[in-house]
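Quick question about two entries, pasted in order.
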Amino acid sequence: MKSAFSLLLLSFSPSLFAQETLHLYAASSMTNAVNELIKHYQASHTTRVVPVFGGSSSLARQIERGAPADLFLAASDDWARYLIDKQNIGSEHVTLIAGNRVVLIQPATSSSASFDVNDRQQWQQRLAQSRLAVGNTDAVPVGIYAQQVLSSLGVWDEVRSYLAPTNNARSALALVERGEVALGMVYQTDAQSTDKVTTLTVFDDSLHDTIHYPLLRLSDKSNNQTFIDYVTSPAGKSILARYGFTTDMEHEQFAQ
């Protein structure tokens, strides 16, 4: 006769005992896409994926200080390389999964219909009584890309004193959504995620460094690669593309 404890064990699915948890630290601009990737991945795998979202620079430093991350999805090659250097990880642990664009946005309630990004006077006029929301230009990838764009356009000196720097792309977007600033520079995918802003300009890729989202494998957990394989599969790419990310990364190279 089976004991009550044995019967209790038999009443549970064996998969519960085999479940592994992965901690994924991901750039805030990937929030919506990553949440959906996790949802669909977990529907066919026993692995539980726990996301932590934030600015790439902040997350990288948390991981450096010992945060229990198994995977790190950065919004630039620089912050993936930062951890590679700090933790002596081989670049073979990096998979490029997506790309993005930088855009200029304004609140949807704004009456201005056009903007010449090459016109210094227009920048000064629009920002005279307001600010330009950007990521921190010293550390946050979207802010670094924004500074590169403004410098390439030759308007950095006119605009720099009007910046409203934030800790991540989503915070910059929120300032524009709430109408607290006249303009913002964020990722195209963030602008597409809300009807509270309108896009004035999609900046040419030549104005800034190529935007990569490298996914870095940090631990030896067996399902790390399984999750990466799903993200880079046709199903995973379809989800990323639906949120506006470019996914044709076969010819892209991680900047070592």
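Here is the second entry:
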Amino acid sequence: MRLVFAGTPEPAAAALERLIASDHEVVAVLTRPDARRGRGRTLHPSPVKALAVEHGIAVLTPESLTRDDAIRHQLEELAPDAIPVVAYGNLIPADMLDIPAHGWVNLHFSLLPKWRGAAPVQAAIAAGDAVTGATTFRINEGLDTGDILDTLETEVGEAETSGELLERLAYAGADLLVKTMNALDAGTAEPTPQPEEGTYAHKIAPADARVDWNQPAAVIDRGIRAHTPAPGAWTMRGENRFKLGPVTPTGEGSLAPGEAALGKNEVLVGTADGDVRLGTIQPPGKKMMNAADWARGLAADAKEGVVFE
């Protein structure tokens, strides 16, 4: 089939790479415009654009599909049979959904209808889901509510972060997307309507990643892993903000919520029902480091009465 691929970040590039290697023809990609990042605020292409350029594939970078009249004509001229979508980051207008014969097919990193929305991987970890997965479905006018084409399941590791889980799902999902394209091409795909009811994973703001030490240890553990690596879990000590890596619940302890005990080889912090052992910590203006190394480096008077809020 002739495909126009729509996607932007690294997980989407994994899917594009598999589609390029498949029997289908990727005639163009839709991706977000180059973005400024880094200290120099220089423009950088999205991972999808960089991969497309490497393979000599045409790149379309409209700011918006709803406000760019030219993009509809470009897509019509490309005449794609399907438009696979992975984390594109742009709203697809209803009047564009019928351009490809087989529709816009989204690869979503959850088992729909569970965790519709922007952050399904983070939501699955934060909720303590034992199993999650990926779904391919036809995009309609709703939010991740279109007919399901195929799914895959995977267990969530006990200590897995959202970054690690997303990487696994990106590659497994890439194979699922190719499988779905093959089924559409062969006419063997069996679309299944979704139930109307589902759960939603809202877009994560930095404030959502603040650790609430009054929560149980297991909830804190899941919340930190859900926000690792982005936007990064954090806590306050006085007026200073500290970024935290994953923690380990100890299953015991008597520290008050947020109260820290700085040992020679470990740093423990109290929660609502027991202590957690900090793994890594990033003090203001410094790099992420082992929490015990950070504690040993503090002046003697700075080790007294350490409390995180």
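Reply: The two ends are 55 Å apart (CA to CA). DSSP finds seven helices and 19 strands in the chain. Hope that helps.
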